[in-house]
Amino acid sequence: MMIRTPGLRALLYCSVFALPAIASAQTPPAATVPDTVVTGQPDLAPNTVPNNAQREQTLREMPGNVSLVPATQYRDRPAVTTLQQALEYTPGVWAATKWGEDSRLSIRGSGLARNFHLRGVTLYMDGIPVNQADGSGDFQELDPLTAYRIEVLRGGNAFTLGSNTLGGAINFVSPTGRLSPGALVRGEAGSFAFARGQLAYGLETSQADAWGTITALTQNGYRNHSAGQSQRYNGNVALRWGPDNMAETRLYAAYANIYQQIPGTVTREQALTNPRAAVPINVINNWQRNIRSFRMGTITAMRPTSGVLLELGGSIVDRDLNHPIFQVIDNETLDVTAFGRATLEGRIAGMPHWTVLGWNFAQGSVRNRRYLNNGGFSGAQTYGTNDQARNFNAYWQTNLTVAPNWQVIGGLQLGQAYRSAFDTFNPAGSPNNTSGSGNWQWVNPRIGVIWQALTQAQVFANLSWSTEPPTLSDLIPLVPVGGGFENLNAQRAATFEIGTRGTQGPLDWEVAFFRSRLKDEIQQFIFANGQSFALNADRTLHTGVEAGLVWRIAKDTFAEGDLFQLRQAYTYSWYRFDNDPIFGNNQLPGMPRNLYNAELRYQHPSGFWIAPNINWSPTSYFVDNANTQKTDSYILVGLRGGVQLENGFSAFVEARNLGNTRYIASANIVPVATPSSAIYEPGIGRAVYGGIQYRF
Predict the structure, then answer these.
(1) Which domains does the chain have, with CATH numbers?
(2) What is the pLDDT of residues 167-204, one digit of tens each?
(3) Which one of 79, 268, 408, 552 has the lowest number of neighbouring Cβ atoms within 10 Å?
(4) What are the E-state strand segments in 556-607?
């Protein structure tokens, strides 16, 4: 069952953002991440999409743990369809595969109790929010193959993107004609009838560049009733203009059409004994999540004088969701965003500074309807609201060099959010009427320090606050608890972080310790049939360690120019209630305390490579607040290999879960679980995928 074609209203609205705009400056220290080859003549014109090395310099101005993941790190793997595969060696990111291209995502314990869609992390595509205006979102609109890099800005380190979430932000940055000129053809196939293809092309001139890609995917899925199909387009075009090319304007367009069956959650015993089975009611009523979205955006960068760079841009997103589950959810969403940013370099009292000032605005409207589910088709209407969400925040951050190799950082974010629902189905005064509205305001300060201990090594620390207002689905539960629009507080957190990053000899590292104290953490709970409601916990504590290490173990072992390299990522997560009146000091459920991923890669100068790997969860985790039921620990062993030739041709193959281990990939969170609770998502069994790619 496919969803209907969205209206063309996005094409009309996007003209609002086709105006020139302004944008921001370069920042200091030395880059430590190698970049892909960039063509074109160097000049002083502003660049709306800096290359990886330039962006790495900017990220090194953050007094906290941030990661830049070049797409080259995962493009030599087939069947990379989710954040779990793309960010497998990025510590601190818990991305558990559910089914198809959907995942569960948590950074620093954000949204652990969110059992559907997304909350607690702001996803961006080229700086344009993928999340809806209320903060919720869907992972499936993102395709890792369409990224040039992925930026992970944990917690308050996403401050200057305007994010105000506990988990921070993940930004997918698209290639451009300047960064990825030429053509690309790619094909992949593998287990469970998986097949995907990609075509891409980029070109550039001295005044302009353009890039575009089309990807298409089909798969039957590991579990019954988990088949999916998707088609995506992503592209951008830029023009340099003005005296001495002082400005650059870039336009973005992206389209996604996604069809996905939902096999459903099962009991722990079923997940471990019959993991491929689907829930019978999901098959009978043809449960699905189908999305069609169209987004357009623009950014203009202008450098009016040395040391000043300004940005202005915006976007419009038209999205349709057709979602047959216990009922058929039918949503039409229109989100409009705008932002401005100024980055300044100069001196304050003789001390060098880097300062960023900015603002973000988002306005969203949702036509929310529900119908009886008749075998996946809509029956009689059961519910209807017209919902609104609005956010505005303004922020400032200054990095001040107070002594050689020492920077102090200060910042402030001011924000306001509005949510409302107008019930069009239940009459006013009815106990089921969900009309209502709410406002939330916040002030999030931030302080930090960076010590440049060595030329390519830093020590950092920061104390940052975050405030997350509720999403519309938090405020308008699928089954009203007590009736009407829910009254929830915004989730508040204060996070202390200390760590180090750098390169020294054969080692590259990033290590951070954090501790967050939360007030009114938003907990999402479900009933047995998938219906949900949210509430505020009292106080909770989130403590963790994020550690990544790349060790170039040996060179020239078997041939001149060969390399053995070990890549590792370790995440420690200790999250608990803090003297809760019901759950005491119980652990917060939803995520293993320890996670370890490692890959030992041998690269031969001929282009051949091979890489055994493991994915290890040495500890189980609770699935309920009462801490009565757990998952199991597990270890998955895989093997990758391929060849990269100088003529642009590459081939690659990957075997996952070689032992065909049965394990639980994720679980829905409930207040109290029993052995018969159907809340578990089985992990995928043994699978083999292969692919080829040609650049020319």
Answers:
(1) 9-387+403-436+456-695 (2.40.170.20)
(2) 999 999 999 999 999 999 999 999 999 999 999 999 99
(3) 552
(4) 563-577, 594-603
Report d(CA 21, CA 447) in Å as an integer: 30
Q: Please, are residues 476 and 432 in contact by the beta-carbon 8 Å criterion?
A: no
Query: Cα separation of 156 and 167, whole Å?
Result: 8
DSSP-derived letter for residue 588 is P
Handedness of CA 660, 662, 663, 664 (dihedral sign): positive
Tell me the β-bridge partners of 247.
241, 302
Measured between alpha carbons, how far is 460 from 61 in angstroms, rounded to an integer? 10
Beta carbons within 8 Å of 15's beta carbon, 6+ residues apart: none
Find the length of the chain: 696
The CA-based angle 619-620-623, given to 5 degrees, is 150
Looking only at the bridges linking them, the beta strands covering 608-617 and 634-644 are antiparallel
Give the whole-angstrom CA distance, residue 445 versus residue 464: 6
The residue with tokens 């660049």 is: 47
**Amino acid letter, residue 643:** V
Q: For tokens 């609002």, what's the residue? A: 16
pLDDT of residue 527: 53
Task: Identify how many contiguous H helices and E strands the chain contains and give both numbers.
Answer: 6, 34
How far is it, in rounded angstroms, from Cα 166 to Cα 662? Answer: 32
Identify whether the C-beta of residue 154 lies closer than 8 Å to the C-beta of residue 546. yes
The model's pTM: 0.90
Identify which of 91, 176, 87 has the alpha carbon closest to the alpha carbon of residue 126.
Answer: 176
List all residues 6 or more positions away from 127 whose beta carbon is below 8 Å from its beta carbon: 161, 171, 297, 299, 313, 339
**What number of CA atoms fall less than 13 Å from residue 331's CA on the CB side?**
24
For the stretch 365-402, pLDDT in tens is 999 999 999 999 999 999 999 999 999 999 999 999 99
Kindly state the tokens that stand for 568. 């590792």
Contact call for residues 46 and 343 (beta carbons, < 8 A)? no
Q: What are phi and psi of 579, to 5 degrees?
A: 55, 45
Q: Residue 59 is encoded by which pair of tokens? A: 């990220």
Query: Which tokens hold the place of 283?
Result: 């098959």
Over residues 142-159, mean pLDDT: 93
